[in-house]
Please model this.
Amino acid sequence: MPHPSPKSRIEELRRLIRYHNERYYREDAPEISDAEYDALFRELQKLEEAHPEFFDPDSPTRRVGAEPVEAFGTVVREIPMLSLQNAFREEELVEFDARTRRFLRGRGHGLEAILDARGYVAEVKIDGLAVELVYENGTYVRGATRGDGVRGEDVTANLRTVPDVPLSIPRKAAHSVRGVIAPAPPPYLSVRGEVYMTKADFRDLNRGRERLGEPVFANPRNAAAGSVRQLDPRVTASRRLRLWVYGTGQDPSKTGVSLFTHHGEELDILKGWGFPVNTEYSRVCRTVDEVLSFYREVEGRKDALPYEIDGIVVKVDAVELQRELGEISRSPRWAIAAKFSPDRAETTVEDIIVSVGRTGTITPVAVLSPVVVRGVTVRRATLHNQDLIDEKDIRVGDRVVVQRAGDVIPEVVESLSAGKKEPGREGPFRMPDRCPICSSPVERIPGEAAHRCTGKGCVGKRKESLRHFVSKDAMDIEGMGPKILSALVDSGLVSEPADLYDLDAQTLAAMERLGDRSAGNLIRAIEKSRTPTLSRFLYALGIPHVGQHLSEVLARHSGSLPAVRRSTREELMEVHEIGPEVAEAVSGFFSSEEGKRIVDRLLDRGRIKVRPEPPREGSMAGKTFLFTGALEMPRAKAQELVRKAGGIVAAGVSRKVDFLVAGADPGSKLAKARKTGIKVITEEDFVKMAGGRVP
Ligand code: IVH
Model:
């Protein structure tokens, strides 16, 4: 077949694309796959570029506002989107209330009285996709997914197609809602909420997909998430998405302005600005009993609601108290999600075994007849500890309920055979009094429910901690799998982390199952791991309670390994997000003989060299900074930090400036900046934005 001329191919493509647009957008019944459609679209774009003489303003490629984005960009936010602590039982809500009160009482100043007066706001927890919408001077400029809290995916164009998303909000004080007059929005406004799909729209969507032989979505949440995270905003536009907003991402301590004094008011203001707020299912509850009755009421009505919810969210109403309570490990202390019964399934306990963790903790594990919970086959589930087993009377042979909630490991929540005499039911489980691996005595740590192997050199412990040390998020020694590690430990070549750095290719190659090539690769991987960042190194040490996030917090706060090693428990307690347990564990580790030796040997003779934490990449990307007054750090240093983090340094006040960093005795720039509506921040805020501590 002869090649068609460019002109006729262009005409044909325009016709085809228009035809498929109709099928797709109007009828919700595409005849070709997204990929095929994209291919046609790109072919037309290319031809039009190469042949501007055939320009046609009506070409389907000219449709404004809905150009497919190449890939999602990353949005780095200053005020992270936090996650929530979870409660799975009513008692845990009661505990949350008690905990909150205790904390406030500890802070004094009649704070508990404020809680008594204002109480909580309870809302439904929508099961959708968390998003942030940013408005600059009242205009929608950015939409992003939550991502890891700090970095989200830029889905601005996609969210623009969601009818519930206001594209602009009143710039002057708006009309009142429930007696609250929405003030003029600040120049920069971050609004947070959940994009969702109604149950009915979800069913329609799936019916259409089924008819076309396309894969159906498992639930409305996946459908909503899949629709937002589309490279082509036109696909998003074709899905019937909705939005509920539940708060702002403002931090009054940063902007110096507080738009509201309590969460209820925050919701009313958002509503006044035109955002969809679920006022039908949000309620002010003065006491925890009122919270509980809201929880029960909503759970009872859950199935009748037009959208899916997976629980309720309870928030301390007064912003003043929220600020006092602060946050811990990425979740606010002032809020909790009370989930409705998470997914569970019944199965049989075939055996109970114990596993030895890297800190020596001996955990009983139920070996189960395989059962699918939330789409995942569960074969083992933790039994946590002897006390819980006793309390729930779980034994081999029992019918039990296993639960997989969120991302946590499966657990046995209940035995249906508890207290019964059934054939096949064994006697009560007892923790072994000797470690199954090293045979050292097992002891129960006073004051804790856990049992621990007392063996100083327990091989099980050692293997687990080495496994953690080399893992991807720690030192990242690629190829050093559990089998090789185990063999290295068994052969006596490795007993602690430093030994890994004394290995050579010949020794490795001489080991079973390892050829010259893999040995060489392994040595290279070990070499590559010799210069970890401080946070990776801290994480690799496997100090109890210190996960990746807290390792980074510690690294950014302390700045250097010697500083972390020197820190006392009291000093560590001062660090935001670090509680007494973590402080104890960290200072305890570094002052213990073993901890000292492990670290010293690693540093000795340059086996490894710990790098300071690099600034968070691009944390200031595209933002313009201006400085005034005396800073703690030299001005040049501050400017360098901005540039390193991808920001711009301005010379004077102008509309282009995003942040004015004000030191002591600020000059006239401060007043000017305030007039221009530029955000004024302290040096401390600035350092945080730059990614933590200044080296
Ligand atoms: S408040 C600091 N309120 O739940 C407060 N979250 O784990 C943080 N969610 O994906 C969130 N409905 O998007 C809040 N009424 C509600 C919510 C809600 C759903 C989602 C949120 C996030 C998750 C938090």
Observations:
- Residues 64-70 have pLDDT under 50 and may be disordered.
